[in-house]
Specification:
alpha/beta; 2 domains; two-stranded parallel ribbon; 44% helix; globular
Length: 143
């Protein structure tokens, strides 16, 4: 998010920043006794709460950031991201990478990697937090 704010500051200071959250309804939702739509509403509520926690930690430098929530209907958030970017005529997609080493990436496919491979419609910038680079051992320990 910091990179999007920084780019906006350098570009014109007026660009709209949209933060997309792609959420899904878990496959076992029906065991809760709730309908698909009811459980989707619950997942959306959690996404909104998590966004509020996330955005509180960010220095927005006075820029309005619009949250956008997309329900993943086809178990492919990459397509959801690309389609929404095209729909809203986004100038760029900025996504954070988890910071894995090349060896780790061989074993674990990431959303950022799939976006790089799949997206040929909207310019893409993949960012990584400074000093963050998880190796295979750290990644396995995080699981």
């Amino acid at each position: 998010m910091e990179e999007a704010i920084e780019i906006t500051e350098k570009y014109d200071g007026k660009s709209e920043i949209i933060c997309q959250n792609v959420f899904s309804v878990p496959s076992g939702y029906h065991f809760t006794g709730k309908s698909y739509e009811e459980f989707s509403d619950i997942m959306l509520m959690h996404a909104k709460v998590n966004y509020k926690k996330f955005i509180r930690k960010i220095d927005t430098k006075g820029h309005d950031i619009t949250p956008l929530y997309t329900r993943d209907e086809d178990d492919d958030p990459v397509i959801d991201i690309i389609n929404k970017a095209q729909e809203i005529e986004a100038n760029i997609i900025i996504i954070g990478a988890k910071g894995r080493t090349a060896a780790t990436a061989l074993f674990i496919g990431s959303l950022a990697e799939r976006l790089i491979q799949t997206n040929n419609k909207v310019p893409l910038l993949v960012t990584r937090p400074k000093g963050k680079n998880a190796g295979i051992i750290e990644y396995i320990l995080d699981i």
